[in-house]
Amino acid sequence: MKLIFVGDPMCSWCYGFGKEMTSIVESMPELEVQIVLGGMGAGSTQVLDDAGKQFRLTHWARVEQMSGAEFNRDALLARKNFVYDTEPICRAVVTARVMAPSVDLLSVFRAFQRAFYVDGLDTTDGKVLAEVGAASLQSAGFDTDAEAFFSRWSSDEVIQATRADFALTQNLGVTGFPTLLVEWNGKLGRIGSGFMPAAQVRQTLARLAA
Fold first, then answer.
1. Which residues 6+ apart lie within 8 Å of 25 measured at CB?
2. For residues 107 and 5, is the Cβ–Cβ distance under 8 A?
3. Which DSSP state fits 4?
4. How far apart are CA 92 and CA 77, in angstroms?
5. Helix, strand, or coil (residue 132)
6. Does 158 or 206 have the greater pLDDT score?
7. Using CA atoms in the order 164, 87, 6, 185, what is the torsion angle rounded to 10 degrees?
8. Strands (E), 123-209
9. In what order do the strands lie in the sheet with 179-184?
10. How many other CB atoms are there within 10 angstroms of residue 205's CB atom?
11. Which residues pair with residue 35 across a beta bridge?
12. Positive or negative, the Cα torsion across 206, 207, 208, 210?
């Protein structure tokens, strides 16, 4: 049985679901997990204006109420000329997957989420992403540095691999994030989209396994 998590590190509901996803994985160590990067706002050129900031703050409040996740609202409000392009951060997660295939990719995914939502970093900047990504891989015992991470992040190989994730998201029929799918006995099923309690997901997986 394989659990497929389709998400985007700059999706607030994916961020809110982070603790639940970690709980699922930690409580079911035998479960194979695949993370697919969705590209929620990949390629966007729209500058985040005051209306866009308020729109997101409204969503953040709902996510915070549902999940208890921490948000740095001041950092969002202080951003100037910020383009909400999620391709760079999605590509950074793919970079970690390519550089260290055996790494716990969920922990890397969550490190990038924290960089944006808590630390208030510019996660559209490749150099910033390289620092976060290298630190995350180093903490997992992988020997690398920001320069090597940035070089791989900039490569055609990783750019194409990221596009492949976006294409897979479309092929899976995913239109909202996060989405959980399960693959078992040669079949693919949808568990649900949006915030889901970990217990609910575990019950569904246990029922299928039985």
1. 31, 33, 106
2. no
3. E
4. 24
5. helix
6. 158
7. 10
8. 179-184, 187-193
9. 32-37, 2-7, 179-184, 187-193
10. 19
11. 5
12. positive
What does the alpha-carbon distance between residue 125 and residue 143 come to, in Å, rounded to a whole number?
Answer: 22
User: Distance (Å, rounded) from C-alpha 47 to C-alpha 129?
Assistant: 20
Rg (CA), the chain: 17
Task: Write the pLDDT tens digit of every residue in 94-127.
Answer: 999 999 999 999 999 999 999 999 999 999 999 9
How does pLDDT run across 2-41, given as a tens digit for each residue?
999 999 999 999 999 999 999 999 999 999 999 999 999 9
The reported pTM is 0.97
Would you report the helix, strand and coil content of the chain in percent, each value rounded to 5?
Answer: 55, 15, 30
Strand 32-37 and strand 2-7: the pairing is parallel
Structure tokens at 190: 């949808």
